Amino acid sequence: MSRPDERPADALGTFTVRPLDPASDAALVHGWVTHPKAAYWLMGDAEPADVEQEYRSIAAHPHHDAFIGLHDGEPAFLIERYDPTEVELKGLYEAKPGDIGMHFLVAPTDTPVHGFTRAVITAVMDFLFADPSVRRVVVEPDVTNSAVQALNKAVGFEVLREIAKPEKDALLSACTREQFESATGGNDR
């Protein structure tokens, strides 16, 4: 059996997760969050020092943390996990016990692999649900981000409603453990 932080992804290899280190990972993450494909992260004009400071703030926050996802040992994606009653969605929805919030970003590449992003979001959800206290994952993608909305739907998210956040109009969406397992084949993966 795999460790909770290590998930095989069929022919796509193995995904693991480690905590993000703001000092040593800032340059790497800077290249990801400032890439044009990461426009929804709203950090396109950030300098490396801005990225480091952002992730130092996240690391210091008691209800928010960040991780680097590895594909076959190489950095390939970013995960942010947060308590939605304290960060991002505080006061914007009715939280349920066991809710956890999530953002994820796949590193840009010149050689895309078919199915890779779906394998990443599946690995991210496996990682989040490895914590038995997590009963539901909530996300708030931009209403215009149809690509991530399709990925969310593919792993079991359902749109709850549109919400107005200071930086965007978002589709509040949620996915229970049961919805995720039903959409992805559960333990058959």
Descriptive labels:
189 residues, alpha+beta, 8-stranded mixed β-sheet, 28% strand
Q: How would you briefly describe this protein structure?
A:
This is Lysine N-acyltransferase MbtK. By secondary structure, the chain is α+β, with helices and mostly antiparallel strands. 30% of the residues lie in helices and 28% in strands.
Structural write-up:
- The chain has helices at 22-33, 48-60, 116-129, 146-154, 177-184, and strands at 6-8, 14-19, 64-71, 74-82, 99-106, 136-139, 158-164, 169-176.
- Helices cover 30% and strands 28% of the residues.
- The chain has an 8-stranded mixed β-sheet with strand order 1-2-3-4-5-6-8-7, with helices on both faces.
- The protein is built from 5 helices and 8 strands; from the N terminus they run E-E-H-H-E-E-E-H-E-H-E-E-H.
- Helix 1 crosses helix 2 (48-60).
- Count helical runs: 5
Beta-strand share of residues: 25-35%
Helix-strand pattern, N to C?
EEHHEEEHEHEEH
Gyration radius over CA: 16 Å
Let me know the average pLDDT.
91
**Poorly predicted sequence stretches spanning 5 or more consecutive residues:** none
Total DSSP E strands: 8
Q: Outline the biggest β-sheet.
A: 8 strands, mixed
Through-space gap between termini = 12 Å
**Class computed from helices, strands and strand pairing:** alpha+beta
Helix percentage range: 25-40%
Order of the strands making up the biggest sheet: 1-2-3-4-5-6-8-7
Bulk shape: globular
